[in-house]
Amino acid sequence: MRSSTMLAALLISPALTSAVHAAESAPYPDRPIRLVIGSAPGSGPDIVARVLSERLYKSWSQRIVVDARPGVAGAISADIVARAAPDGYTWLMLTSQLFIATKVYKDLKFDLDKDFASVALIGTVPFVLSVHPQVQAKSVPELIQLSKTTQLRYGSAGTGGGEHLCMVYFLHTAGGQMMHVPYKGIAQALGDVAAREIHTVFAVVPAALPMVQGGRVRAIGVTSVRRAPLLPDVPSISESLPGFETFGWYSIVAPKGTPAAVLDKVSAEIVRAVKEPEFGDLLKVLGIDIVGGARTDLDAFRASEAKRMGDIVKAANLDVK
To answer: What percentage of the chain has pLDDT greater than the value 70?
Structure first.
């Protein structure tokens, strides 16, 4: 019996080895990829992820399934991807919002440096400060003054997120006061500004632009040093508050341990895509400044952003309790 078992094992072993080699040599990707984002549908990351997924499908004929897992400023999405198999079939859209979460939330179950490998930096984007059209503030100075005499309410996509930090930093710099109303997504916050349930909100250009263009909210400032090309009549906040600047950004990372060959292939394709006129124009229409950084570029960018975000959180004395 024992000899027959050994014989069977010897016969099966080559078959198993052959199957393993076949799997390893299969062209990547050979099945759909999951792209996890930490924001709700309709948000900037969601819009960028869907545009990117359509472009990559043209190259690979494999679907990139966008999986929105909002909550805790993106920390929920990061925790999911950190625990995923490092096989190249689960990606995370790493944004400035998630970087902020690591600075203000304690006891997170993941470590951005240890658990995620850089893939590609897509681009950066300014935030837009918007108010309801009937709010008696048509400029940043007027809103600051109004916040000192009236109880204003501002929205965000959640406590500790990018929009929240942006407003806390703004109020800290300007010396104003407002009441924070957190939402599950920025689309909801923008909707409530339009409905006059709250007075104002910061949102990245892709999320805010349709509301601004439709006249449902009024844009009064952008957070970039220069005016946004899609909103040339909207002043930079730094024109009223010298030195004020912040921005959001979009990048792709994967679980640590993902094969380098896979990371290189994905990185090269994303960089190629964002620099193509057709795809690049789609991002520009969303108000995104294209970077198209490869793996090493994103490594350096993450290091610089860790310091920048840390300095802003410290300066704003952000408390998420």
So the answer is: 90
For residue 182, say if its preceding peptide bond is cis, omega within 30 degrees of 0. Answer: no
Question: Which residue, 222, 257, 262, is CA-closest to 238?
Answer: 222
pLDDT tens by residue, 203-229: 999 889 999 999 999 999 999 999 998
Write b or e for each residue in 212-236: b if 16 or more Cβ atoms lie within 10 A of its Cβ, otherwise e.
Answer: beeebbbbbbbbbeebbebbeebbb
> Which pLDDT score, from 0 to 100, does residue 22 have?
39
- In this prediction, residues 296-304 reach a mean pLDDT of 95
What is the distance between the alpha carbons of residues 180 and 152, in angstroms, rounded to a whole number?
A: 9
Residue 119, pLDDT score: 98
- Only one residue has tokens 């394709």, namely 269
Identify the weakest region by mean pLDDT among 19-28, 35-44, 260-269: 19-28
**Can you list the positions of beta strands (E) in 164-215?**
179-182, 200-204
Say whether domain 131-239 belongs to CATH 3.30.300.70. no
Q: What pLDDT is attached to residue 108?
A: 87
Distance between CA atoms of 244 and 223, rounded to whole angstroms? 7
The reported pLDDT for the residue numbered 20 is 40
Tokens at residue 211, please? Answer: 């509301």
Residue 72's identity, in one-letter code, is: V
Q: Which residues pair with 249 in a beta bridge?
A: 124
CB 291 within 8 A of CB 124: yes
Specify burial of residue 308 (Cβ count, 10 A radius: 0-12, 13-18, 19+). middle
Q: Which of 37-51, 88-102, 224-238 has the highest mean pLDDT?
A: 224-238
The domain ranges of the chain are: 32-125+248-316, 131-239
First to last CA, the chain: 67
For helices 162-174 and 295-316, what crossing angle results, to 10°? 50
SS3 content of the chain, % helix, strand, coil (to 5): 50, 20, 30
CATH number of 32-125+248-316: 3.40.190.150
